[in-house]
């Protein structure tokens, strides 16, 4: 046998025993040659298909699609083109097929060469994996060089994007290094809301190309709960420190005065004892107010400022004016905020007038509380909300203002002390509306 004939036999044996189908068609889609492996994949004898038009075996829904691919091959000689379609099996069911075609009509082959393989099992597995991916409680995306290749419904729910309008996710892709890993990343949803994600990824392959399978879950609420827990722990430590230090000091002083009274039988130590015990009682009452900050699960509700002011007018023998009114998101403990501010104005500032003004500013309700008392020194303004800060008549401790700040922060707002020519001035910002 000549060398040329040996090569032909070698190639024929290779094609005949390949698990893939090799097919040559003319420019109209008629079969000029098809390898015997078509029997294993589609159930037909290869000889019976010579001269048959391939469109006979195409699914009705895909005829136009396949025709467009044939047109592309005819217009682009030598350029390979990938195609996926369903082919009719001899027994009547449809076979999922992947094919690669190349126009060699201009060569001695004088035909369009198509290689095909059965991907039915792969497609079935892919559908099952997609079904599983759509039912897991975390987001899944596949990242390729061109961006997002796949996303499940949970990923779209978490981020607010549909598959068609997903952004580049630079926040995630920029942190992917190596074959696998995990990290926490801040993302912005389509609606603008910022969320925190716990992300895990692994390198994989998608359609023969390198890609990354990325799974993530929204941990924003968990981080908020953790922050609340840390805040509560700090608060409890503060309460413990106050009780250990201030209360013990008051009671120790009272006991000392009782010893003096026992020894001298004088009345003067009794007034000191009374004052110290009253201070201790006030401190315990203040601790009850602080307990509010450690409570969890209380939902905020709408609180009207004028109702709080009405109660306070009956409690203090000073003039309290209100300009405007507002409804803010808080709870019943908001009363303690204004109670503490007015108490400080009276006790430490010797005020006779407190003015409260409600306005809308930067999307928040701004409430200014200003008195005509002695005010707060400018060098104390930045520290006035700290536990243990002292100012005003008698240099009393600033536990009330510490409570004010913690409560306002609990409502998602902020409070600050500002310089004022006529007394103390506090500015509170809360979610709400002026009415």
TrEMBL record:
SMART domains in alphabetical order: HATPase_c, PAS
Top-level class of the enzyme under EC nomenclature: transferase
Catalytic activity, as annotated: ATP + protein L-histidine = ADP + protein N-phospho-L-histidine
NCBIfam families: sensory_box (TIGR00229)
Pfam assignment, any one: PAS_8
Ranges for domain Histidine kinase: 242-434
Protein name: histidine kinase
Protein EC: 2.7.13.3
Matches recorded under CDD domains: HATPase (cd00075), PAS (cd00130)
GO molecular function ontology, one term from the record: ATP binding
PANTHER family cross-referenced by the UniProt entry: SENSOR PROTEIN CREC (PTHR44936), SENSOR PROTEIN RSTB (PTHR44936:SF10)
UniProt domain PAS: residue ranges: 7-77
PROSITE patterns from the UniProt entry: HIS_KIN, PAS
Keywords of this entry: ATP-binding, Kinase, Nucleotide-binding, Transferase
């Amino acid at each position: 046998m000549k060398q040329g004939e040996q090569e032909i036999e070698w190639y024929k044996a290779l094609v005949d025993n390949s698990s893939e189908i090799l097919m040559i068609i003319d420019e109209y889609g008629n079969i000029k040659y098809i390898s015997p492996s078509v029997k294993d994949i589609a159930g037909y004898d290869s000889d019976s298909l010579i001269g048959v038009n391939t469109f006979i075996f195409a699914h009705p829904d895909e005829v136009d699609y396949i025709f467009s691919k044939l047109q592309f091959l005819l217009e682009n000689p030598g350029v390979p083109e990938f195609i996926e379609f369903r082919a009719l099996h001899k027994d009547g069911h449809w076979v999922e097929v992947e094919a690669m075609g190349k126009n060699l009509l201009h060569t001695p082959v004088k035909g369009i060469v198509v290689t095909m393989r059965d991907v039915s099992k792969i497609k079935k597995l892919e559908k099952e994996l997609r079904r599983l991916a759509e039912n897991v409680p975390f987001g899944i995306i596949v990242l390729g060089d061109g961006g997002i290749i796949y996303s499940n419904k949970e990923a779209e729910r978490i981020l607010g994007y549909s598959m068609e309008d997903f952004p580049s996710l630079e926040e995630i892709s920029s942190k992917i290094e190596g074959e696998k890993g995990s990290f926490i990343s801040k993302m912005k949803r389509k609606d603008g809301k910022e969320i925190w994600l716990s992300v895990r990824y692994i390198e994989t392959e998608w359609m023969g190309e390198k890609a990354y399978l990325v799974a993530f879950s929204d941990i924003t609420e968990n981080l908020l709960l953790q922050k609340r827990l840390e805040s509560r722990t700090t608060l409890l430590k503060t309460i413990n420190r106050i009780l250990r230090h201030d209360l013990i000091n008051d009671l120790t002083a009272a006991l000392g005065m009782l010893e003096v009274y026992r020894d001298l039988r004088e009345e003067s130590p009794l007034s000191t004892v009374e004052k110290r015990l009253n201070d201790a009682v006030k401190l315990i009452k203040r601790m009850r107010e602080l307990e509010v900050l450690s409570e969890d699960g209380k939902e905020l509700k709408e609180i009207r400022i004028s109702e709080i002011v009405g109660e306070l007018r009956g409690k203090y023998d000073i003039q309290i004016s209100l300009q405007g009114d507002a409804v803010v998101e808080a709870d019943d403990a908001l009363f303690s905020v204004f109670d503490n501010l007015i108490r400080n104005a009276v006790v430490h500032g010797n005020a006779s007038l407190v003015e409260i003004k409600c306005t809308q500013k930067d999307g928040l309700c701004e409430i200014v509380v200003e008195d005509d008392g002695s005010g707060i020194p400018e060098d104390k303004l930045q520290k006035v909300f700290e536990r243990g800060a002292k100012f005003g008549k008698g240099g009393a401790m600033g536990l009330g203002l510490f409570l004010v700040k913690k409560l306002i922060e609990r409502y998602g707002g902020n409070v600050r002390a500002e310089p004022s020519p006529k007394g103390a001035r506090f500015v509170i910002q809360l979610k709400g509306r002026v009415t």
